[in-house]
Amino acid sequence: MMNTETKVKKKNISQLEEAKRVTSKDRWLYFLRQLVTNPVTLVAASILILVIIFALFAPFLAPHDPSLQSLSLRLKPPVWLEGSVEGYPLGTDALGRDLLSRIIFGSRVSLIVGIAAVFVQGTIGVLVGLVAGYYGGRVDSIIMRISDIQQTIPFLILAIAVTAILDASLTNVIIVLGITGWVTYGRIVRGQVLSLREREFVEAARALGSSNGRIIFRHILPNVVGAVTVVSTLTISTMILAEASLSFLGFGVPPSIITWGGMVTAGRDYLANGWWVSVIPGIAIFATVLSINVLGDWLREAIDPTL
Question: What is the per-residue pLDDT for 3?
Fold first, then answer.
């Protein structure tokens, strides 16, 4: 009799798990269809894929050396304006450098900074949030007060202050953006852990003698990955804007490294007779950030079962 009941329970559990897998698969198929059929989301995905292709294959796609100067070609307009030069579809800057080639190479820095900075701040924030939410008490209070203090300081001012102390380099910019942006992750993860630590599966793990580390990383962490993934996607666009802002203000990467923010800065003195030098890189920043935000919203709806 017991064997029969056990078999029935196992069969029911198996059927339930299979139903969950089918439901999850159907949900993802539904959102993939939305991605393909929704014009806005499809355009956003196309733009982001194009930027990624530019970043990965920049040396092969750029028509000219992005650092090659030619004063005889300085401030040549894009092809749709009178006075353009063949072979330079987006025109040239004040030093005669090809704008299209520089935008293609600049996409590398934007994506590297965005993804690497999010990885750093996500790692710090998730670990801090797990510890604060699971242990609570004095540990939680200390961590939350530290995050409160950091949030009172404007992000850009803190980043400029730290960048001014450190040497200007791509690595330092990533570190600065990483250590100044962990608070959002920490608070979100902490809030979820406060709820998860009282759930039955955590109590069962404790009863079986699992260590705190095993409970945190084996049982709780997988349940916060969805929320962290969505926040990370949306934060990449913020980091791209932050890097562009720092480069525009002169606190970003060295001028020898091509960035969209640095290109906007280089053209601000020529807005009257060479507006394209700043405007076109600005459009690249705008289009990339907007595309990431649109896809981030789509990913949030795809992952969050309540939506």
Answer: 53
State the CATH number of the domain containing residue 66: 1.10.3720.10
Q: How far lies 267's CA from each of 14, 55, 111, 171, in Å?
A: 63, 22, 22, 25
Look at the chain and report how many structural domains it folds into: 1
Kindly report, residue by residue over 252-280, the tens digit of the pLDDT: 777 778 888 888 888 888 888 888 888 99
**How many other β-carbons are positioned within 10 Å of the β-carbon of residue 88?**
21
CB 96 within 8 A of CB 70: yes
Q: Does 36 fall in a domain?
A: no
Top pLDDT among 18 and 39 is at 39
pTM, 2 dp: 0.76
DSSP state of 57: S
CA dist., res. 160 & res. 95, Å (int): 28
d(CA 231, CA 235): 6
Q: How many CA atoms lie within 13 A of 136 on its CB side?
A: 9
